[in-house]
């Protein structure tokens, strides 16, 4: 990854995208630790009612990092299994920034990405069961709705076709 050039100012921005339950968060945590990178999960912005339209708030953070400035945002808190406003988080300029979550590799950020990684697991039922096992049975309805939404999003955005790497979960 460090052989590829930075495209967000001095920062190498790496996006880990793919459908819910495929293993993005798990993969991205390991990747960020190995690269000594800062990790921003899009869960810090998304809520059930706002799956992707929060983007301007994350984009504002990325724009500050591109200017080599620190940036602060209010995290969504999922600790009780539902989204509520959480604490502020400040991100400092960094050599490598990993952004992980559905829509993190969206078309509008493609020219700033050092790498787009697509994490997938073909079996949609298995993905749903993994996500329900993670979040609890009460989340099944939300997750089912979310997975239907993201299918449409990915089809329109064409995310996978732009990926530099495809990681297949097993
Ligand atoms: N390779 C794997 N094999 C089995 N289970 C896995 C694997 N990778 C992740 N999981 C588990 O599957 C669940 C979903 O993984 P994870 O949260 O990383 O996916 P995600 O793509 O980030 O999902 P979401 O978009 O819903 O946040 C978690 O409970 C995780 O521990
Ligand atoms: N513990 C969590 C965290 C997030 N979610 C929601 C947030 C999104 O609506 C959706 C997918 O998140 P992404 O992979 O895009 O970061 O899941 C949740 O239900 N439980």
Automatic annotation (TrEMBL):
InterPro entries tied to this protein: Cytidylate_kinase_dom (IPR011994), P-loop_NTPase (IPR027417)
EC number(s) given by UniProt: 2.7.4.25
GO molecular function list: ATP binding; dCMP kinase activity
Alphabetical UniProt keywords: ATP-binding, Kinase, Nucleotide-binding, Transferase
Segments forming domain Cytidylate kinase: 14-44
A Gene Ontology BP annotation from the UniProt entry: nucleobase-containing compound metabolic process
Pfam families: Cytidylate_kin
SUPFAM superfamilies according to UniProt: P-loop containing nucleoside triphosphate hydrolases
Enzyme class at the top of the EC tree: transferase
Catalytic activity: CMP + ATP = CDP + ADP; dCMP + ATP = dCDP + ADP
Name recorded for this polypeptide: (d)CMP kinase
């Amino acid at each position: 990854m460090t052989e590829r050039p930075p495209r967000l100012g001095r920062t190498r921005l790496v996006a880990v995208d793919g459908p819910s339950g495929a293993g993005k968060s798990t993969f991205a945590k390991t990747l960020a630790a190995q690269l000594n990178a800062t990790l921003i999960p899009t869960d810090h912005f998304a809520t059930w009612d706002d799956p992707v339209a929060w983007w301007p708030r994350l984009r504002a953070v990325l724009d500050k990092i591109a200017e080599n400035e620190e940036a602060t945002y209010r995290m969504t808190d999922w600790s009780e299994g539902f989204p509520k406003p959480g604490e502020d988080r400040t991100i400092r300029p960094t050599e490598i920034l990993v952004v992980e979550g559905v829509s993190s590799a969206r078309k509008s950020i493609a020219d700033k990405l050092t790498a787009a990684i697509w994490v997938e697991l073909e079996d949609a039922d298995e993905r749903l069961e993994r996500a329900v096992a993670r979040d609890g049975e009460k989340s099944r309805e939300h997750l089912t709705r979310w997975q239907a939404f993201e299918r449409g999003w990915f089809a329109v955005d064409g995310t996978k076709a732009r990926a530099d790497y495809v990681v297949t979960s097993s």
